[in-house]
Amino acid sequence: HTHGLAHFLEHMLFMGTSKYPTENYYDSFLSSHGGSDNAYTELEYTVYHFDIPMQEKLREVLDIFGQFFVMPLLKMEAMEREIQSIESEFRLSEKSDECRLQQLLCFTCGKEEGEHCFGKFSWGNLKSLKEIPEQHGIDVMAQLRKFYNQYYYAANMRLVVIGAYTLDELQEQVVRCFSDVPAHPRGEPSLLDMTRTNANTWEETCRSGIKDYGMPFAPASLARIYRVVPVRERHSLNITWQVPPQGSNWRSKPCDYIAHLIGHEAAGSLLSALKAKSLVTACYAGVGSGGYENASSHALFNLTFTLSEEGVSHWGEIVTEIYNYIGMIRYYCATQDGLPSWIYEELRAIQDVAYKFEDEMTPEELVENIVEDMAPAFSLPPERLLDGNSLLFEYDGDAIKDIVDNFLVPRNARLDLMSSTFGRDA
């Protein structure tokens, strides 16, 4: 009855700590020294990040930041203001067609309360964090403190720091500022706790409890089409297939291989054939990088077409062509020679060039990328944190065949047809 609690906690940590009790002191310190900060909550993790151009202030801001995870005040008097802040964010985003479609996926996943975290309203708003809890006699602040005590501990956290100091100096700063973070849950452990193997070594692997939830969509919610009225003028067709979590496939990335074929734009591709009929104008295929699309429990393979108005009324023809194309891939997978090897070499070369010549990231972007890649969903070893999610290392035809044969099938798909023509006066 307290959906959005993780997002609410993210807000409340900025409201002061025992050592630095002034509200928004962290924000004020950074802005007064030319820095900035932000935070965001995904399906199974929250990321906090900051940057500060004045190198000599890094020690101070690390100490202020570290206290978030040692002893935040979580003040009752700040609760109402922060719920209103979350409500404002919700109101701004409820006009976004992308956010609305994401929430539709969650709301219609077919899982009952508690069956899968995907089905929860993780954003939160005034209704979910105040009105509904009050109706059920729930103490939201007590739930917030319980959530903090269960999940905010060192073994459940990852930290990335970039600064113009030696590694020894950076380590000294991190130890000084974060050594008081509890190693284990402060109270009753959560059922979603990570299971760690070879803990505190370079060979450590983690298994998130979310993995046990399994796939997010119940069978009853699949093999269906959902017609969606957008806020903006647009027409699109989105097909979503749920597939097993892909973290263990980081070396071969079979979904990238399949996406390369289905989303190709050259002559002879699915897109070019549908463009020739004036039904579509663009497409995207693959597993997204967001926490809802790529999680410990599942991955969502999406195929999205931007449609012409004519394409809306011919959506059935488009879907038929999609499955004809997937059938062709399935046929090649079943042959003795399998899919042509040059396709893999082409994709690997493309990713090599893209990685080698990509624009240099800012330090803040780099720490965000690395800390997300350290999440259990990706299963990356330490030596591959910089390139493991960007490059191909091996070809796995069996993994590709498994996804195409068992998951890219109509009974495992949901269609979201979005069009401004829906609801128009005849």
In short:
With 426 residues, the protein is of the alpha+beta class. 39% of the residues lie in helices and 13% in strands.
Describe the structure.
- The chain has 426 residues and is an alpha+beta fold.
- It is 39% helix and 13% strand.
- The protein is built from 15 helices and 9 strands.
- Strands 5-9-6-8-7 form a 5-stranded mixed β-sheet. Strands 1-2 form a two-stranded antiparallel ribbon. A two-stranded antiparallel ribbon has the order 3-4.
- Helix 3 packs parallel to helix 8.
- The model has no long low-confidence stretch (mean pLDDT 93).
Note the topology.
Blueprint (H helix, E strand, L loop, with lengths): L4 H8 L12 H8 L3 E6 L4 E6 L6 H9 L9 H18 L3 H11 L18 H10 L4 H12 L15 H12 L16 E3 L7 E3 L16 E5 L6 E9 L10 H9 L7 H7 L3 E8 L11 E9 L1 H5 L1 H20 L6 H16 L6 H11 L23 H10 L6 E7 L7
Parallel strand pairs: 5-9
Antiparallel strand pairs: 1-2, 3-4, 6-8, 6-9, 7-8
Helix pairs in contact: 1-4, 1-7, 3-8, 9-15, 12-15
How far the N terminus sits from the C terminus, by CA atoms, comes to: 42 Å
Q: What characterizes the major β-sheet?
A: 5 strands, mixed
- CA-atom Rg in angstroms: 23 Å
Relative helix content = 25-40%
Oligomer: single chain
The arrangement of helices and strands along the chain is HHEEHHHHHHEEEEHHEEHHHHHE
Query: How much is the average pLDDT?
Result: 93
Order of strands, widest sheet: 5-9-6-8-7
Structural class: alpha+beta
* Low-confidence regions: none
Strand content: 5-15%
Number of helices: 15
Broad shape: globular
Number of E strands: 9
